[in-house]
Amino acid sequence: MKIDLTETNSSKINAAMVQARRDIGTPAIGMVLTLVIVTDEENAYDALKSANDASHEHPSRIVVVIKRASRSPRSRRDARLDAEIRVGADSGSGETVVLRLHGELVDHAQSVVLPLLLPDAPVVVWWPDGAPQDLAGDPLGTLGQRRISDTYSCEDPIRELSARAASYAPGDTDLSWTRITPWRSMLAAALDQQNLAVASATVEGEDENPSCELLAMWLADRLAVPVTRTLSSGPGLTAVRLSTKDGDIVLDRADGALATLCMPGQPDRAVALKRRDTAELLAEELRRLDPDNTYESALKFGVAKLQPSAPAEAAAEAPAKPEAPAKADAPATAAAEAQPKPAAKPSKKAANK
């Protein structure tokens, strides 16, 4: 069932939702949380589809906030709220309210959303695209116990990671971090089996991919070893190599679906490590609403080292300075690290990448 309301307010929206539930014969509220999605018209459809798919695991009231840009000074002064209510089969396992804010109301979105939150239920705020730099300081972000962004959608993911670390507050998280959960689980299990000390690590993946950077920071933080970041054509994160005295532990995924795990003294094994869609990532984040201390530690550990790395600029300078990686006082570039150098040891500045 869909109900359209124009030039409405929060009270009328609440009343319409109650009546819609009665009309379809489900007057009770069986939802466990409120998911607030802050997006634009371009990304609203994909975001809502992912949220509806995730709601099968986490029944929720989904509130989509779309801020409509006004073209003329007069329309910018006129505040107007339009709403679309979806219940039943049109809204997954919960109910959906799509809010379109016009004029001055764009700057007061939190006052519209607040009356629509489920009573005594947690609130999660998700920005599929265009998240503010300070998630917890944003007016809508202050409503949530959990705040989800995605640095992969940013123009400069590395700079965005630095901003996330500077403004981090308990409850912040990132889908770029969620994407590497299977990688972290597989690597942790491999180290438990081998019980070997890791001397160094290498993370290989696409340039400007925040998931690769976060995994490198997590390894450096947890293992306290130098981590080298090398580039590949993707897709996404392609390989991780952990160097030990008995040989390398390698997790290699070249095709984005099936990975090969190689460990000293054991036969190679194939493991499923497919790239997950947004609905799966969102469902994973909704399973826990407490602060992610591991994400915080990894994010803050690497941000100072990522700041000066500038992989694109370093790669551009590599042809002019072919001997730079061999010098102790010259930063190793991602392009130079990608070349086979079996006898070379990762420098301290290479680990910063």
What pattern of helices and strands is seen along the backbone? EHEHEHEEHEEHEHHEHEEEEEHHHHH
Q: What percentage of residues falls in helices of 4 or more residues?
A: 25-40%
How much strand? Answer: 15-25%
Arithmetic mean of pLDDT: 82
Count up the helices: 13
Which stretches are low in confidence, meaning pLDDT under 50 for 5 or more residues running? 306-353
Radius of gyration: 23 Å
The rough form would be described as elongated
What is the rounded distance between the termini?
A: 52 Å
What's the total count of β strands? 14
The assigned structural class equals alpha/beta
Largest sheet: 8 strands, mixed
Give the strand order, joined by hyphens, for the main sheet: 1-4-5-3-2-6-7-8
Give a brief outline of the structure:
This protein has 353 residues and is α/β, with parallel strands linked by helices. It has helices at 10-23, 41-54, 73-77, 109-113, 157-166, 175-178, 181-194, 210-223, 278-286, 293-306, 311-317, 334-337, 348-351; strands at residues 2-5, 33-39, 60-67, 80-87, 95-102, 123-126, 146-149, 172-174, 198-205, 227-231, 237-244, 247-252, 258-262, 269-272. α2 links the parallel β2 (33-39) and β3.
Write the layout of secondary structure elements.
Layout: E1 2-5, H1 10-23, E2 33-39, H2 41-54, E3 60-67, H3 73-77, E4 80-87, E5 95-102, H4 109-113, E6 123-126, E7 146-149, H5 157-166, E8 172-174, H6 175-178, H7 181-194, E9 198-205, H8 210-223, E10 227-231, E11 237-244, E12 247-252, E13 258-262, E14 269-272, H9 278-286, H10 293-306, H11 311-317, H12 334-337, H13 348-351
